[in-house]
Write a structure and sequence with these properties.
Distance between the termini: 28 Å
Shape: elongated
Number of helices: 5
Helix content: 55-70%
Oligomer: single chain
Length: 155
């Protein structure tokens, strides 16, 4: 993504502070926990059919959740979904590769996946929506109620 025009106007980070502040690590852990719960939910639904089906649903959930996470970060900076052509191309290629791994028999054998149906895709998309919703809620709580102090030299 392009750099914001105001990046050079910010003061530098205080050298006394850690590179990864506790506040950031807590946010990261919460988002990771949300993604883990989403993966467990996908596994639960997949296990109703078979272990391979569960594996495929978890694999797909984890892949797509990373794109949801990237979009959450971009949304924090008010960057539009289609504003970066490279990101959009990467998303399309990655989803295409994921579909190949799920639906092409030779790749199914190699990756130990199986074809998933429309209901499974609906479950995965619903999980992505809840990951996004909960992740943005975490961002909102941290940005509104847990202010970051002492990050820059002048604070």
């Amino acid at each position: 993504d392009p750099i914001t025009p105001y990046s050079m106007n910010r003061p530098p980070r205080s050298p006394a502070l850690p590179i990864l502040p506790l506040r950031f690590l807590i946010r990261l852990a919460l988002i990771g926990f949300i993604i883990a719960i989403g993966s467990i939910v996908a596994c639960h639904f997949g296990l109703k059919i078979s272990a391979v089906h569960a594996h495929t649903m978890v694999f797909t959930t984890l892949i797509l959740s990373q794109f949801v996470r990237i979009q959450m970060i971009r949304a924090n900076y008010h960057i539009g979904f289609f504003s970066n052509n490279w990101f959009t191309a990467n998303l399309v290629v990655s989803i295409g590769l994921q579909l190949m791994v799920i639906y092409i028999p030779i790749l199914q054998k190699f990756f130990k996946t199986t074809a998933i149906g429309l209901i499974d895709w609906g479950i995965i998309i619903a999980i992505m929506f809840f990951i996004w919703l909960l992740g943005m809620s975490v961002h909102y709580v941290f940005s509104k109620w847990i202010p970051e102090k002492g990050t820059y030299v002048n604070n």
